[in-house]
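ESCALATION

Customer reports they have been waiting on this structure for their group meeting. Please prioritize. Original submission:
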Amino acid sequence: MSTREETLEELLLEEEVLTQNEIVLYNDDVNTFDHVIETLIYACDHTAEQAEQCSIIVHYKGKCTVKTGAYDDLKPRCSMLLDAGLSAEIV
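Update from on-call: job pushed to the front of the queue and completed.
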């Protein structure tokens, strides 16, 4: 029984070490809602509804987390947002 408890403790510890990064999109006065929505659909695999909701949050709150996950997955997505003229960063 102690072997099982030890394995469970190792598993829980390993899960705590895994970190989730986030892409945060920031508001600007340049890009249109349509451009932001289309870019989120393309770069972050959002549905039209998700992209629209994120664009509204960014507009009114100044920023919004648009994608979470492993850094290696987020880096190219964030680059696509930046290449499209949006303001974003991985935190």
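Sent to customer with the following note: The mean pLDDT is 90.
Escalation resolved.
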